[in-house]
Amino acid sequence: MKQIIGILLFIFLLTQSVSAKREKILYDFKFGFAKGGEAILTITDTVFNGIPAIHYYMDGRTTGLTDKLFGVNDIYETIVDAKTMLPLKSIRNIKEGKYQWYNETWFYHDINSLYSNKTGRIAMPDNMVDMVSVFFYFIKHHLFTKIEPGTIVTFPTYHGDKISNVSIKYVGESEVKTDLGEIKSLVLVASVDKGKLLNRSDGVRFFISKDKKVPVLMEFDMKLGQLKAVLRSYKINNVEQVTK
Q1: DSSP type of residue 136
Q2: Which residues pair with 181 in a beta bridge?
Q3: At a CB cut-off of 8 Å and minimum separation 6, what does 218 contact?
Q4: Predicted structure pTM score
Q5: To 5 degrees, how large is the angle CA 243–CA 52–CA 144?
Q6: What is the separation of C-alpha 143 from the centre of its chain, rounded to a whole number of angstroms?
Q7: Strand locations in the chain, DSSP E?
Q8: 61-89 pLDDT, tens per residue?
Q9: 10 Å Cβ neighbour count for 231?
Q10: Rounded CA gap, 227 and 16, in Å?
Q11: Are 216 and 187 in contact (CB under 8 A)?
């Protein structure tokens, strides 16, 4: 369950732009018709070491029977440079049953290194991202330009106190049926470590509204069946938005 919640959390952090009004986005996790959890994301402007930045705070947790089985309450935070969308600091506070993980990491792009409370200083490649900022970086540099179906982009990504590659493939466009009606969406497939729960490494798909670049549906092909993440609410300055 830990790997799936982590995947859900960083995928949820796809939003309409790199600007950060006071935004709040709520999603439901579903197995079939049963609700299994929810995630709430808040996005705020901030300043980090004198640099204009954006703070992403995500709280994801299981509910109902799923909570009794797994007991997940994960908090993911990342502060990114508002101009480059590269991470400046990240915090992971994971509580899943008896398992706990807490780590803070600082990124120093000018000297290509990061510092982790877990392992100390680590060398890193240029344009290093983490599991939150990877999708913002993809949007900024690829999704707002003309992109051809089949395009694959790979990013060096820091997650779980190690560096690995995450690949994102643009598949094309699709109509997605939601409670708000049919929404024209861009379909992306992420290639990640499938771990013990995913059925295959490319079993993660997400659908982003073509207009506002808000994720409206995420699908996960798991060994136990398909898990979906469904957009329930999207507010800016406490005003509900219409997602097209």
Answers
A1: H
A2: 178
A3: 8, 11, 12, 204, 205, 206, 207, 228, 229
A4: 0.78
A5: 40
A6: 16
A7: 23-31, 34-48, 51-62, 72-81, 87-96, 99-108, 113-116, 120-123, 129-130, 152-159, 162-178, 181-191, 204-209, 215-222, 225-236, 239-240
A8: 888 877 777 787 889 899 999 999 999 99
A9: 23
A10: 24
A11: no
Contact between 44 and 22 under an 8 Å Cβ cutoff? The reply is: yes
Alpha-carbon distances of 20 from 110, 139, 153, 187, rounded to whole Å: 24, 15, 25, 24
Task: Map tokens 């502060």 to a residue.
Answer: 79
Rg (CA), the chain: 17
63, 89 Cβ separation under 8 angstroms: no
Q: What is the DSSP string of 47-73?
A: EETTEEEEEEEEEEEE-HHHHHHH-EE
108-148 pLDDT per residue, tens: 999 999 999 999 999 999 999 998 888 777 777 777 677 88
Which amino acid is located at 122 in the chain? I
Contact 228, 216 (CB under 8 A): no
Alpha-carbon distance of 200 to 190, in angstroms, equals 11
Distance CA(202)–CA(15), nearest Å, equals 22
Other CB atoms closer than 10 Å to residue 24's CB: what's the count?
A: 16
